[in-house]
Design goal:
heterodimer; A: mainly alpha; Ferritin; two-stranded antiparallel sheet; 2 strands; globular; B: alpha/beta; 4-stranded mixed sheet; 3-stranded mixed sheet; 3 helices; elongated
Chain lengths: ~280, ~170
């Protein structure tokens, strides 16, 4: 059993679970019915991926997958902060969906070379399903970026918020160095972050979206630490005047207040009815 | 693929597996779906390794129960082990010819085979063959559907919406 492997798989599983939960909140509320089906199905895929990853961790630790997914304290979750942000409007939902799935496809592509054979098989399986998520997001980005002014403006505003926060997906995981050394993590998070910034940046250019969307990118990409040494989730200005980029800290369990209500909802049944099956 | 059985108990085990259906697609057995990776018979102990079709498929625990109870009904089987693995990952290419035929009869367009296929921007065949009337005048409506394995199409000829098994 390797602590760094568990750390890596937990971060991945938590991202999928929490964003899957947010996607599921669209069930019954999307602008039109085909998207209701799409978001519900994507949510089911993401939560299914999380369940399979928790089961893999359970094989190593002996924990029940449900307990790993639903039985932890807030500070024990290791997803990136962008995953827990509320859906806001359709534009923000699409912006985050696209950023996440662009990032996820890069990360899963490299993870197929992980030294853990069963995980590598699962990653291959996940990639074949995730492919449809990214194509769905790409198609929507194209449609809205090239569409009427209001939708385009809303999308640009949403990307302003979400682009720098997406960098939090590539914050180093706990025990990152060990995970690289032991062969679990084939490409370090920092390297993936650079690849992601390039890929997403180029895509935004080809969609004709303004480059200012990336204005905060360099700053946030450095992962400025707070005075206590901890990375923190909410953007704030500290007494020394240094602005802390938002969206960081998730990989060390520092979440924003947006996670409070989500966690309550997500874990409610598990806490109220111990041992419930569904 | 089904290998040539070497013992009669193994024969019976395969026959029992043939009776286990995917609860969401009750027309097709887990054998025809290509979900059985391996069957091992050691004396009276049987172990079966199953490949889940889609990662988030809620049918998986039900399939596990169904495989276990089908094997329990085979006389001579004393110990049963059912495991799932993602190694190798299940793909739609694993569905047998008979399985594809049964999918179509069930009203679910089977996943398209190899060969040049025009793909839409959401990654699916531009045209699917309508399982009801055989028309190619169909269009993709949604890459997603009521279960993780299905996409939605519409037939312009018989005017039926239908589902296509999604290639993965």
């Amino acid at each position: 059993m390797s602590a760094s492997l568990i750390s890596m798989v937990t971060a991945l599983a938590d991202d999928e679970l929490v964003l899957g939960h947010r996607h599921s909140e669209w069930t019954g509320f999307t602008p039109y019915i085909e998207e209701d089906v799409a978001f519900s199905s994507i949510a089911q895929d993401e939560i299914g991926h999380a369940a399979a990853l928790y089961a893999l961790i359970g094989q190593m630790t002996g924990d029940e997958p449900d307990k790993l997914g639903l039985g932890r304290e807030k500070s024990e979750y290791r997803h990136a902060v962008i995953c827990e942000r509320p859906n806001q409007d359709w534009a923000y939902t699409l912006a985050r969906h696209w950023l996440y799935d662009t990032a996820d496809s890069l990360r899963l592509e490299t993870l197929e070379a992980t030294a853990h054979k069963e995980l590598a098989g699962l990653i291959t399986k996940m990639r074949r399903e995730e492919r449809y998520h990214l194509l769905h997001a790409d198609a929507w980005m194209k449609r809205v970026a090239g569409g009427p002014v209001e939708g385009r403006t809303r999308l640009i505003d949403a990307l302003h918020d979400a682009f720098s926060e997406a960098m939090g997906l590539f914050e180093p995981i706990e025990l990152e160095e060990d995970a690289v050394k032991e062969g679990w993590l084939p490409v370090p998070s920092g390297e993936l972050r650079i690849r992601f910034a390039h890929k997403a940046g180029e895509a935004l250019d080809s969609l004709g979206l303004p480059t200012e969307i990336r204005s905060r990118l360099d700053q946030s990409a450095e992962f400025v630490a707070s005075s206590s040494g901890d990375l923190i989730a909410d953007g704030e200005t500290h007494e020394d005047g240094v602005s802390i980029p938002s969206g960081l800290g998730g990989r060390s369990g520092e979440h924003s207040s947006d996670f409070d209500a989500l966690w309550d909802d997500l874990t409610h049944t598990f806490r109220e009815v111990p041992g419930a099956t569904w | 693929m089904v290998t040539v059985p070497t013992t009669s108990l193994e024969d019976e085990v395969w026959a029992a597996l043939q009776s286990v259906k995917d609860p969401e697609i009750p027309a097709v057995s887990v054998v025809e779906m290509g979900m059985i990776k391996a069957v091992e018979v050691d004396g009276q102990a049987v172990s079966v390794t199953v490949l889940p079709t889609f990662t988030g498929c809620p049918a998986v625990p039900i399939i596990k129960e169904d495989v276990t109870s089908a094997l329990a009904r085979v006389s001579g089987v004393e110990a049963i082990q059912v495991d799932f693995t993602f190694d190798p990952p299940w793909t739609t290419e694993r569905i047998t010819e008979l399985g594809r035929k049964k999918l179509k009869e069930f009203g679910l367009a089977p996943p398209t085979g190899t060969g040049p296929v025009l793909i839409t921007e959401i990654g699916l065949p531009k045209v699917s063959i309508c399982p009801f009337c055989g028309s190619k005048k169909t269009r993709n409506e949604n890459a997603f559907g009521p279960t993780p394995c299905r996409a939605l199409y519409y037939c312009e000829d018989c005017r039926n919406p239908f589902e296509q098994f999604k290639p993965v």
